[in-house]
Design brief:
Blueprint (H helix, E strand, L loop, with lengths): L7 E7 L15 H11 L2 E7 L3 H11 L6 E7 L2 E2 L2 E2 L2 E2 H15 L1 E7 L7 H8 L6 E5 L2 E2 L1 H15 L10 H12 L7 E4 L5 E3 L4 E5 L9 E2 L1 H15 L4
Parallel strand pairs: 1-2, 1-3, 3-7, 7-8
Antiparallel strand pairs: 4-5, 5-6, 8-12, 9-10, 10-11, 12-13
Helix pairs in contact: 1-5, 2-3, 3-4, 5-6, 6-7
């Protein structure tokens, strides 16, 4: 029997959300991400639950089976401060970085509250790995809102080819294209003081281009500058 084989994969590592008292593993990003894969084509979704550092690495190793041209890791779990599900984010990102060379992992999307505030940690973890980009949220976010944003980011970033990572503009354009359909002033969550946070202030983007001597950089401002520039061209005065 012939087995179907896609060239790309989105690896979803999800921890149970328990969004309410009756949420017995009911809520999941999986149906959304499977829809993205079907839309973009040539992309499989592999997923597993994790509960701590050890189960995270076991899940990632399991999901990396097979040959792929590229993979994206999507971490979907509660976050607080510098921790994801109580595990230091640096520990989880370093695990992904270690696997990235052997398994051709391009990037990490962290669907967790607050961890994107630590963009320096994101830079340190992806530097000198094969990882090209990392995205995270800087505030607490509404679950459905952030999941929809994640879907658009995955749809755009999964289409990038290896050579695109020589070109900063190509990656910035892909990230900007993903966010352009959303209102940058829309409230997507709140900060640690319970103040509203809008989309424009709610995310961090880090990029490490291919090539000797390239270092990881925070490109958040560049992404929004790209969106602002396109908006000025498209919106004509009345």
């Amino acid at each position: 029997m012939n087995m179907r084989h896609a060239n790309r994969a989105i690896l979803v590592l999800e921890s149970p959300w328990e969004l309410d008292d009756r949420d017995a593993n009911r809520s999941s990003v999986i149906p959304f991400i499977e829809g993205v894969a079907k839309l973009t084509g040539d992309t499989d979704v592999h997923y597993a639950n994790f509960y701590d550092k050890k189960s995270f690495e076991m899940a990632l190793e399991c999901l990396c089976k097979g040959e792929r041209d590229s993979r994206i890791v999507y971490i979907a779990a509660h976050g607080l401060g510098k921790k994801i599900m109580g595990v230091p984010m640096i520990d989880l990102l370093l695990i992904v970085a270690r696997y990235s060379i052997r398994y051709r992992i391009d990037g990490v999307l962290i669907g967790s509250c607050f961890v994107g505030k630590n963009s320096t940690t994101m830079e340190v973890c992806i530097e000198e790995s094969r990882l090209r980009w990392c995205v995270g949220y800087t505030s607490a976010t509404n679950w459905l809102d952030s999941t929809l944003i994640d879907c658009k980011l995955l749809a755009e970033l999964s289409q990038l080819e290896d050579n695109d990572f020589f070109n900063r503009d190509a990656v910035v354009d892909a990230m900007a294209e993903a966010l352009r359909v959303f209102n940058p002033k829309a409230v997507i969550g709140f900060d640690k003081n319970e103040r509203d946070v809008i989309l424009r202030d709610g995310m961090s983007f880090v990029l490490q281009l291919r090539g000797q001597g390239q270092r990881a950089r925070n490109i958040t401002d560049a992404v929004w500058d790209d969106i602002d520039g396109r908006t000025e061209v498209w919106v004509q005065p009345s």
